[in-house]
Amino acid sequence: MEVIHQSPTDPTFVQDPYPFYERARALGDIVIWRDYDMPMATSHSAVMDVLKHRRLGRAPLSPLSAPDHLRPFYAVEVHSMLELEPPRHTRLRRLVLHAFTSRRVAALEPEIAQIAHQLLDGVPNTSFDLLPSFAQRLPVIVIARLLGVPEGMADQLLAWSNAMVGMYQARRTRAMEEAASAAAAEFTTFLRSHIDQRRMDPADDLITHLIAAEDDGDRLTPDALIATCLLLLNAGHEATVHTLGNGVKAILENGAQAALRADPDATVEEILRYDPPLHLFTRYVYEDTEIAGFPFKRGQQVGALLAAANRDPMVTDSPDLFTPTRPPTRPAAFGAGLHFCVGAPLARLELRVALTTLFQRFPKLALAERPSYANLYHFHGLRSLSVTP
Questions:
Q1: Coil, strand or helix: which one is 116?
Q2: What is the CATH number of the domain that holds 383?
Q3: What count of other Cβ atoms lies within 10 Å of the Cβ of residue 130?
Q4: Number of folded domains in the chain?
Q5: 21-55 residue pLDDT tens
Q6: CA 198 to CA 222: how far, in whole Å?
Q7: Full domain range(s) for residue 70
Q8: N or C: which end of the chain has fewer CB within 10 A?
Q9: Which of 221, 237, 96 is nearest to 164 (CA)?
């Protein structure tokens, strides 16, 4: 197995990781990324095999020992659907899908459009940063309304989310870990109280539907309910913010406004392929197995380079070009297999509505300065996005 070196916090890599992915893919379907000391799937076929293989999963073989300062974070994380395997994962996902139906998601479209218009009503007539004024605000307000949380708590939800997702970044420090644990504890305390309130006073929100969700007499435990809401906040907000920012950048740099108007769904799929919000996802090997011709031992951890898979020339012609008119392919941005993102339909809806509303309102929208990416890996998103309306 070939070995490749690349610091994930190197400024050049942060701004453009795709040349590294191309070099890694040229070495083979599976390579050792020495900076992680981990085998990584680089090609589309190998990434899909890693994500879908039934001998691989998200949960470690033995519970990870957490230092004292991280126990509040992992006390919630251990119940997350993202970190579980069958049969617990199957049960939890089925219950969540009872509440988070495609019909309920589709019914949110007018509300998402209303939020988008309200936010754009408040932007200045001169150049402004689209991230804090629009891209960050829209998904967190949607989540607040979904959860039945007062909209005035959007800033607090945003702060909690920003702190917790620091746990998944290569630049993670002790201070970031302590902030993530504090945020997880505060969010849990708030949510327990909110859930208790909803049990006594049901409403037409996701928490009420999650409380009521039942399958053959089985219901969500309070811990699983809290972990599901935390997953919705962190994954739903962080990924959508980055995809909105990356998408607006790609549209403006490539003059793709007409393509967006002609087929917004195809444009969203191309954004998710071309510059996705999450670049690296991991699995544990549960039994000795072989993937892409390479043997893996029980207990090994394997990485799937989602963004490398999306630009595999064996799957996509001219993959480094942003081409919304290309035949749509399902990108790896939302994962695959048992852990395919349960919030993907909501994310796609938010992206389509947000982008079409933005460019309808500001058909002459232009970049005010060259955007730069923030040091967030395993995520990939902009530091700022200065535009003129």
A1: helix
A2: 1.10.630.10
A3: 27
A4: 1
A5: 999 999 999 999 999 999 999 999 999 999 999 99
A6: 12
A7: 3-388
A8: N
A9: 237
